[in-house]
Automatic annotation (TrEMBL):
Substrate binds at S10, G11, N12, A13, G14, K15, S72, F159, G160, Y161, D162, K182, H187, R188. It comes from Cobetia marina. It catalyses: dITP + H2O = dIMP + diphosphate + H(+); ITP + H2O = IMP + diphosphate + H(+); XTP + H2O = XMP + diphosphate + H(+). This is dITP/XTP pyrophosphatase. Its EC number is 3.6.1.66. Binds 1 Mg(2+) ion per subunit. Homodimer. Its cofactor is Mg(2+). Pyrophosphatase that catalyzes the hydrolysis of nucleoside triphosphates to their monophosphate derivatives, with a high preference for the non-canonical purine nucleotides XTP (xanthosine triphosphate), dITP (deoxyinosine triphosphate) and ITP. Seems to function as a house-cleaning enzyme that removes non-canonical purine nucleotides from the nucleotide pool, thus preventing their incorporation into DNA/RNA and avoiding chromosomal lesions.
Length: 206
Protein backbone atom coordinates (compact mmCIF):
# COMPACT_ATOMS: atom_id res chain seq x y z
CA UNK A 1 0.00 0.00 0.00
CA UNK A 2 1.57 3.24 -1.06
CA UNK A 3 1.92 5.83 1.67
CA UNK A 4 0.78 8.73 -0.45
CA UNK A 5 -2.18 7.67 -2.52
CA UNK A 6 -4.93 5.32 -1.52
CA UNK A 7 -8.61 6.01 -2.03
CA UNK A 8 -10.91 4.74 0.68
CA UNK A 9 -14.04 3.61 -1.14
CA UNK A 10 -16.53 4.44 1.59
CA UNK A 11 -18.95 7.19 2.44
CA UNK A 12 -19.37 6.05 6.04
CA UNK A 13 -17.85 8.57 8.46
CA UNK A 14 -17.54 5.95 11.21
CA UNK A 15 -15.54 3.60 9.01
CA UNK A 16 -13.39 6.46 7.75
CA UNK A 17 -12.45 7.37 11.32
CA UNK A 18 -11.54 3.79 12.14
CA UNK A 19 -9.44 3.35 9.00
CA UNK A 20 -7.63 6.63 9.57
CA UNK A 21 -6.64 5.40 13.03
CA UNK A 22 -5.72 1.90 11.82
CA UNK A 23 -3.47 3.20 9.04
CA UNK A 24 -1.90 6.22 10.75
CA UNK A 25 0.90 4.17 12.38
CA UNK A 26 1.95 3.09 8.88
CA UNK A 27 2.13 6.66 7.66
CA UNK A 28 -0.85 6.11 5.38
CA UNK A 29 -3.63 8.68 5.24
CA UNK A 30 -6.29 7.18 2.97
CA UNK A 31 -8.27 9.72 0.95
CA UNK A 32 -12.04 9.41 1.42
CA UNK A 33 -13.67 8.89 -1.97
CA UNK A 34 -15.95 11.90 -1.53
CA UNK A 35 -12.89 14.17 -1.50
CA UNK A 36 -12.08 12.90 -5.00
CA UNK A 37 -15.58 13.32 -6.37
CA UNK A 38 -16.54 9.66 -6.12
CA UNK A 39 -20.19 9.04 -5.24
CA UNK A 40 -21.48 5.87 -3.58
CA UNK A 41 -21.55 2.83 -5.84
CA UNK A 42 -24.71 0.78 -6.09
CA UNK A 43 -24.26 -2.31 -3.92
CA UNK A 44 -25.87 -4.92 -6.16
CA UNK A 45 -23.88 -7.94 -4.95
CA UNK A 46 -25.26 -10.85 -2.97
CA UNK A 47 -22.21 -11.21 -0.72
CA UNK A 48 -19.97 -8.88 1.26
CA UNK A 49 -17.15 -9.90 -1.10
CA UNK A 50 -19.04 -8.86 -4.22
CA UNK A 51 -20.12 -5.54 -2.74
CA UNK A 52 -16.63 -4.70 -1.51
CA UNK A 53 -15.24 -5.47 -4.97
CA UNK A 54 -17.89 -3.28 -6.62
CA UNK A 55 -17.05 -0.37 -4.30
CA UNK A 56 -13.28 -0.69 -4.65
CA UNK A 57 -13.43 -1.03 -8.44
CA UNK A 58 -15.76 1.96 -8.74
CA UNK A 59 -13.43 4.22 -6.72
CA UNK A 60 -10.28 2.97 -8.47
CA UNK A 61 -11.85 3.46 -11.91
CA UNK A 62 -12.84 7.05 -11.22
CA UNK A 63 -9.67 8.16 -9.43
CA UNK A 64 -6.99 6.04 -11.06
CA UNK A 65 -5.70 5.29 -7.55
CA UNK A 66 -5.32 2.04 -5.61
CA UNK A 67 -8.52 1.51 -3.63
CA UNK A 68 -9.56 -0.02 -0.35
CA UNK A 69 -13.22 -0.94 0.27
CA UNK A 70 -15.04 -2.37 3.27
CA UNK A 71 -18.35 -4.15 3.08
CA UNK A 72 -19.67 -5.11 6.46
CA UNK A 73 -22.79 -5.85 8.43
CA UNK A 74 -24.39 -7.67 11.29
CA UNK A 75 -25.66 -11.26 11.11
CA UNK A 76 -28.34 -11.98 13.72
CA UNK A 77 -29.05 -15.63 14.47
CA UNK A 78 -32.65 -15.13 15.62
CA UNK A 79 -33.35 -13.42 12.25
CA UNK A 80 -31.82 -16.26 10.21
CA UNK A 81 -28.75 -14.16 9.49
CA UNK A 82 -30.51 -10.92 8.61
CA UNK A 83 -29.83 -8.08 8.05
CA UNK A 84 -26.41 -9.29 6.77
CA UNK A 85 -25.40 -7.55 3.57
CA UNK A 86 -28.50 -5.39 3.90
CA UNK A 87 -27.49 -3.98 7.30
CA UNK A 88 -27.14 -0.39 6.05
CA UNK A 89 -30.55 -0.65 4.37
CA UNK A 90 -32.38 -2.56 7.14
CA UNK A 91 -34.82 0.17 8.20
CA UNK A 92 -35.44 1.49 4.69
CA UNK A 93 -36.26 -1.97 3.34
CA UNK A 94 -38.89 -2.21 6.08
CA UNK A 95 -40.22 1.33 5.47
CA UNK A 96 -38.96 2.32 8.91
CA UNK A 97 -36.77 5.25 7.94
CA UNK A 98 -33.04 5.27 7.22
CA UNK A 99 -29.70 5.77 8.89
CA UNK A 100 -28.06 4.32 11.98
CA UNK A 101 -30.72 5.33 14.48
CA UNK A 102 -33.59 3.99 12.43
CA UNK A 103 -31.63 0.82 11.70
CA UNK A 104 -31.10 0.29 15.43
CA UNK A 105 -34.79 0.88 16.14
CA UNK A 106 -35.77 -1.55 13.37
CA UNK A 107 -33.42 -4.19 14.76
CA UNK A 108 -34.86 -3.79 18.24
CA UNK A 109 -38.41 -4.16 16.96
CA UNK A 110 -37.49 -7.20 14.84
CA UNK A 111 -36.08 -8.83 17.98
CA UNK A 112 -38.88 -7.90 20.33
CA UNK A 113 -39.59 -10.75 22.72
CA UNK A 114 -36.41 -12.67 21.84
CA UNK A 115 -34.65 -13.62 25.11
CA UNK A 116 -31.09 -12.61 25.88
CA UNK A 117 -29.48 -15.98 25.24
CA UNK A 118 -31.08 -16.17 21.78
CA UNK A 119 -29.85 -12.71 20.70
CA UNK A 120 -26.48 -13.91 19.45
CA UNK A 121 -24.99 -12.04 16.50
CA UNK A 122 -21.74 -11.23 14.77
CA UNK A 123 -20.33 -8.44 12.70
CA UNK A 124 -18.63 -9.35 9.45
CA UNK A 125 -16.12 -7.27 7.57
CA UNK A 126 -14.71 -7.97 4.13
CA UNK A 127 -11.90 -5.76 2.89
CA UNK A 128 -10.86 -5.57 -0.75
CA UNK A 129 -7.68 -3.91 -1.95
CA UNK A 130 -7.23 -3.22 -5.66
CA UNK A 131 -4.01 -1.80 -7.13
CA UNK A 132 -6.08 -0.44 -10.01
CA UNK A 133 -9.59 -0.87 -11.41
CA UNK A 134 -8.64 -3.83 -13.63
CA UNK A 135 -6.50 -5.57 -10.99
CA UNK A 136 -7.04 -9.31 -11.67
CA UNK A 137 -5.73 -10.34 -8.24
CA UNK A 138 -7.58 -8.34 -5.63
CA UNK A 139 -6.54 -8.93 -2.05
CA UNK A 140 -9.62 -10.07 -0.11
CA UNK A 141 -9.73 -10.68 3.63
CA UNK A 142 -12.54 -11.16 6.12
CA UNK A 143 -13.11 -11.33 9.85
CA UNK A 144 -16.04 -11.58 12.21
CA UNK A 145 -16.72 -10.40 15.78
CA UNK A 146 -19.13 -12.21 18.10
CA UNK A 147 -21.58 -10.42 20.34
CA UNK A 148 -25.20 -10.11 21.35
CA UNK A 149 -27.94 -7.64 20.52
CA UNK A 150 -28.98 -5.63 23.56
CA UNK A 151 -32.61 -4.72 24.30
CA UNK A 152 -31.79 -0.98 24.51
CA UNK A 153 -28.91 1.17 23.21
CA UNK A 154 -25.92 1.77 25.44
CA UNK A 155 -22.90 4.05 24.85
CA UNK A 156 -22.19 6.81 22.36
CA UNK A 157 -18.92 5.82 20.67
CA UNK A 158 -18.45 3.91 17.45
CA UNK A 159 -21.18 4.01 14.80
CA UNK A 160 -23.88 1.90 13.23
CA UNK A 161 -25.18 -0.90 15.45
CA UNK A 162 -22.47 -0.42 18.10
CA UNK A 163 -24.85 0.87 20.85
CA UNK A 164 -26.76 -2.42 20.55
CA UNK A 165 -23.75 -4.74 20.19
CA UNK A 166 -22.94 -6.29 23.55
CA UNK A 167 -19.54 -7.88 24.12
CA UNK A 168 -19.80 -10.43 26.94
CA UNK A 169 -16.03 -10.63 27.47
CA UNK A 170 -15.64 -6.87 27.75
CA UNK A 171 -18.84 -6.42 29.75
CA UNK A 172 -19.86 -3.44 27.65
CA UNK A 173 -21.28 -2.49 24.27
CA UNK A 174 -19.09 -1.76 21.25
CA UNK A 175 -20.16 1.89 21.61
CA UNK A 176 -18.60 1.96 25.10
CA UNK A 177 -15.17 0.76 23.98
CA UNK A 178 -12.22 3.10 23.48
CA UNK A 179 -11.63 3.60 19.75
CA UNK A 180 -8.25 1.88 20.04
CA UNK A 181 -9.77 -1.12 21.84
CA UNK A 182 -12.49 -1.47 19.23
CA UNK A 183 -9.85 -1.45 16.49
CA UNK A 184 -7.86 -4.15 18.26
CA UNK A 185 -10.83 -6.48 18.72
CA UNK A 186 -13.22 -5.70 15.91
CA UNK A 187 -14.03 -7.47 12.66
CA UNK A 188 -12.61 -4.45 10.82
CA UNK A 189 -9.45 -4.15 12.90
CA UNK A 190 -8.61 -7.82 12.56
CA UNK A 191 -9.42 -7.89 8.84
CA UNK A 192 -7.01 -4.95 8.48
CA UNK A 193 -4.25 -6.89 10.24
CA UNK A 194 -4.74 -9.70 7.72
CA UNK A 195 -4.71 -7.26 4.82
CA UNK A 196 -1.44 -5.74 5.97
CA UNK A 197 0.10 -9.20 6.27
CA UNK A 198 -1.09 -10.10 2.79
CA UNK A 199 0.31 -6.86 1.36
CA UNK A 200 3.66 -7.45 3.03
CA UNK A 201 3.78 -11.00 1.65
CA UNK A 202 2.85 -9.72 -1.83
CA UNK A 203 5.56 -7.07 -1.81
CA UNK A 204 8.19 -9.57 -0.60
CA UNK A 205 7.38 -12.03 -3.39
CA UNK A 206 7.22 -9.34 -6.09
O1 LIG B 1 -18.05 -1.71 13.30
C1 LIG B 1 -19.27 -1.55 13.13
N1 LIG B 1 -20.04 -1.05 14.11
C2 LIG B 1 -21.35 -0.82 13.95
N2 LIG B 1 -22.03 -1.07 12.80
C3 LIG B 1 -21.29 -1.60 11.79
C4 LIG B 1 -19.92 -1.86 11.92
N3 LIG B 1 -19.48 -2.38 10.76
C5 LIG B 1 -20.53 -2.43 9.97
N4 LIG B 1 -21.63 -1.95 10.59
C6 LIG B 1 -22.96 -1.76 10.01
C7 LIG B 1 -23.17 -0.31 9.61
C8 LIG B 1 -23.98 -0.41 8.37
O2 LIG B 1 -25.36 -0.55 8.73
C9 LIG B 1 -23.53 -1.73 7.76
C10 LIG B 1 -22.39 -1.54 6.78
O3 LIG B 1 -22.91 -1.33 5.48
P1 LIG B 1 -21.91 -0.99 4.28
O4 LIG B 1 -22.65 -0.97 3.03
O5 LIG B 1 -20.71 -1.88 4.38
O6 LIG B 1 -21.38 0.46 4.66
P2 LIG B 1 -22.05 1.88 4.44
O7 LIG B 1 -23.15 1.79 3.42
O8 LIG B 1 -22.39 2.45 5.74
O9 LIG B 1 -20.85 2.70 3.82
P3 LIG B 1 -20.01 2.33 2.50
O10 LIG B 1 -20.75 1.25 1.76
O11 LIG B 1 -19.93 3.59 1.72
O12 LIG B 1 -18.66 1.89 2.97
O13 LIG B 1 -23.07 -2.53 8.84
MG1 LIG C 1 -22.88 0.75 1.74
Amino acid sequence: MSASSLVLASGNAGKLREFARLLAPLGIAPIPQSQLGVSDAEETGLTFVENALIKARHAAAITGLPALADDSGIEVDALDGEPGIYSARFASRRQQGQGDQDNNAALLSALEGVPEEARTARYWCVLVYLRHAADPVPIIVQASWEGRVLTAPSGDGGFGYDPLFWLPEQGMSAAQLEASTKNRLSHRGRAMQQLLQALTAASESA
